[in-house]
């Protein structure tokens, strides 16, 4: 029996398990689809159905808890950023959000990419490195530089640079 036909036989159980751990609201179908995709890409997956079944259940479980962790990290990050903005110079939160978004949009694409993956999507450095096809150390240094650049632009230090360019 091929891996695909083994997986097809297991789909009803996989869907039921995904629904049991995440409910209908969090798209159990997406969870199953991601698990099947990872299984098919994985070169050393179990051969026998008896071994493949628990292996797929673990993949679903791990994907689900990874997503929960990412959501928690995003919530904590957003809450921390909101707290820091509220404590800052007294500008309104909405005004500060707009400044950050405008500054973010003006960053070079590779700078926006690393900030988006790490700070917005909550990827780990290793995950972002895999997505970007660069070493983890490169991601770490790019994130550091990107955060400094964004902060510089949000704090208004960007205006001096823009004026200098216009006078040249």
How is this fold's topology laid out?
Elements (H helix, E strand, L loop, with lengths): L2 H20 L5 H14 L7 H39 L5 H14 L2 H12 L4 H8 L3 H19 L3 H10 L1
Task: Give a description of the structure.
The protein has 2 domains: 1-71, Rna Polymerase Sigma Factor, Chain: A (Orthogonal Bundle), CATH 1.10.1740; 88-168, Winged helix-like DNA-binding domain superfamily/Winged helix DNA-binding domain (Arc Repressor Mutant, subunit A). 81% of the residues lie in helices and 0% in strands. The chain has helices at residues 3-22, 28-41, 49-87, 93-106, 109-120, 125-132, 136-154, 158-167. It is elongated and about 65 Å long. Residues 8-72 form the RNA polymerase sigma-70 region domain. Belongs to the sigma-70 factor family. ECF subfamily.
Question: TL;DR of this structure?
Answer:
The chain is mainly α and 168 residues long. Helices cover 81% and strands 0% of the residues.
